[in-house]
Design brief:
By secondary structure, the chain is of the alpha/beta class. It has three domains: 274 residues, Alpha-Beta Complex (Spore Coat Polysaccharide Biosynthesis Protein SpsA, Chain A); 66 residues, no CATH class; 105 residues, Jelly Rolls. The protein has twelve helices and 30 strands. The strands form seven sheets. Strands 20-21-22-29-24-27 form a six-stranded antiparallel β-sheet, with no helix packed on it. Strands 6-9-7-8-12 form a five-stranded mixed barrel. Strand 2, helix 2 and strand 3 form a beta-alpha-beta unit. The longest helix is centred in the N-terminal third of the chain and has 15 residues.
């Protein structure tokens, strides 16, 4: 059987302000009602695949779990990387997890943030790759290029290989070489030659074969990953890898660590409407457009506007006499950019990071394992939030050193612990939590709890939380 390994650790900085460090693009619904992570799961052939194994970082673990639950998807495992070490160590952890169960499945390594429009073509390429992978080949998927692209690496095809599939012939090519991102003239020459494919970052191989080749070419990486995995701990539904050990691991891509060095690499062409949606221009390219070439999301009124990407998240956005623009409005930020320069959005993100701006990490609406909150207003000594608590969910038992809180229930029922008292608060009722008081909030009902929280105090940061007990294992 095939074990899908979905790597969900990207940041998607070029899609800011939609994508943020703590809520990146794989968790966004960019093309339809499903997020990119959910679409990655949905395009798998359930008759061929086991429940997917997800690799993500600690900060994203509850978002991953919630999106899989909302998608009615059971994960085979969710492995938490203590820190990003590029793709080779992440895939090594997945391979170790697979063989630890006594199996040797074919690993289908996928990124959580790709768009693939032709699902049937994708599944056929997977079936072709399965034939080669079952014969101990290490398969990479090469995207049939549609234009001279300078933003992708390339794979040069070698000798053609064919093997009998269940219904027809599986076709692949020996990998002649992996090529870095070219300039435009070189990219055009690659396209004209017909010998090059875009490097998709998707792979298939037996777990054992990958580990064998890694032992040959990167033994230190394998040793450290094995030691880190052997010292894992279980945290709710998550497998937590030893941070102290894993931090010593080399930081390499699978291309450099294995695929460029092995003699058993095969590339299977894929022509499935693929995009890594790495920027707003690529998102514009794969989205449906109106008769003027515009991609519109939200409440938009335009006049003499052409070839633009406009995303109005929460307000009416109007445009007059513009062309080739990207306009993105969120609750807390506005981006206006020339579509030909959207690669430079990452420069804005770097400035936000250096300035330690809230907008670098978070959307105004922040998701938590118990629900979410939206910061409606923020002053020097006050903040107003709208809080949503899922049925049966409970916030940690906690206290604050620098702020007091007023809670007003808008709908639903709250079970409140306030010092040594526990009581119910229902619609149109409120309660006050003094500074320094141990407290907790729970939704004992069957519908979502909606409430307004007014914070007052000298410091209102999210790190002013002392947790005494938490059902989600947070420190």
């Amino acid at each position: 059987m095939i074990l899908p390994v979905i790597m969900s650790g990207g940041s998607g900085s070029r899609l800011w302000p939609l994508s943020r460090a703590l809520h990146p693009k794989q968790f966004l619904a960019l093309l339809n009602e499903n997020t990119l992570l959910q679409e990655t799961v949905n395009r798998l052939d359930n008759s061929q695949c086991l429940n997917p194994l997800i690799i993500c970082n600690n900060e994203h673990r509850f978002i991953v779990a919630e999106q899989l639950r909302a998608n009615d998807t059971a994960a085979g495992d969710i492995i938490l990387e203590p820190m990003g070490k590029n793709t080779a160590p992440a895939i090594t952890l997945a391979a170790l997890a697979a063989v630890a169960k006594g199996d040797d499945p074919l690993l289908l390594v996928l990124a959580a943030d790709h768009v693939i429009k032709d699902v049937a073509a994708f599944q056929q390429a997977v079936l072709d790759a399965k034939v080669f992978a079952a014969q101990d080949k290490l398969v990479t998927f090469g995207i049939v290029p549609t234009h001279a692209e300078t933003g992708y690496g390339y794979i040069k095809q070698g000798a053609k290989q064919t093997q009998s599939n269940s219904s027809d012939m599986a076709t692949g090519f020996d990998v002649d070489s992996f090529v870095e991102k070219p300039d435009l003239a070189t990219a055009q020459a690659y396209l004209d030659s017909g010998e090059y494919l875009w490097n998709s970052g998707m792979f298939m191989f037996k777990a054992s074969r990958y580990l064998e080749e890694l032992a040959k070419f990167s033994p230190d990486m394998l040793a450290i990953c094995t030691h880190a995995y052997d010292n894992k701990t279980q945290d709710l539904d998550f497998t937590r890898i030893s941070a102290d050990i894993f931090s010593q691991c080399p930081e390499d891509s699978i291309d450099y660590a294995v695929m460029e060095r092995t003699d058993d690499a095969i590339v299977v062409p894929m022509n499935a409407g693929w995009s890594d949606v790495g920027s707003f221009s690529s998102l514009w390219e794969v989205s449906e457009k109106d008769e003027n070439g515009n991609v519109n999301h939200g409440d938009i009124i335009s006049h003499n506007t052409t070839n633009s990407y406009i995303n109005a998240g929460h307000k009416l956005v109007t445009t007059v006499g513009v062309d080739n623009l990207v306009i993105v409005e969120t609750k807390d930020a506005l981006l206006v950019a020339n579509k030909d320069q959207v690669q430079d959005v990452k420069s804005i993100v770097e400035k936000l990071k250096v300035q330690d701006r809230y907008e670098y990490k978070h959307q105004r609406e922040v998701f938590r394992p118990w629900g979410k909150y939206d910061s409606l207003d923020f002053g020097e000594r006050d903040q107003v939030k709208r809080i949503t608590v899922k049925p049966g969910a409970k916030l940690s038992i906690q206290m604050h050193h620098h702020r007091a809180e007023h809670w007003i229930v808008v709908s639903g029922t709250a079970r409140v612990t306030n010092g040594d008292k526990t009581f119910l608060v229902t619609e149109n009722e409120s309660t006050y939590i003094p500074l320094g008081t141990i407290h907790a909030l729970e939704n004992p009902g069957k519908i979502a709890l909606e409430m307004i929280e007014v914070q007052t105090g000298s410091y209102l940061g999210e790190d002013d939380i002392v947790r005494f007990d938490d059902k989600y294992g947070r420190v």
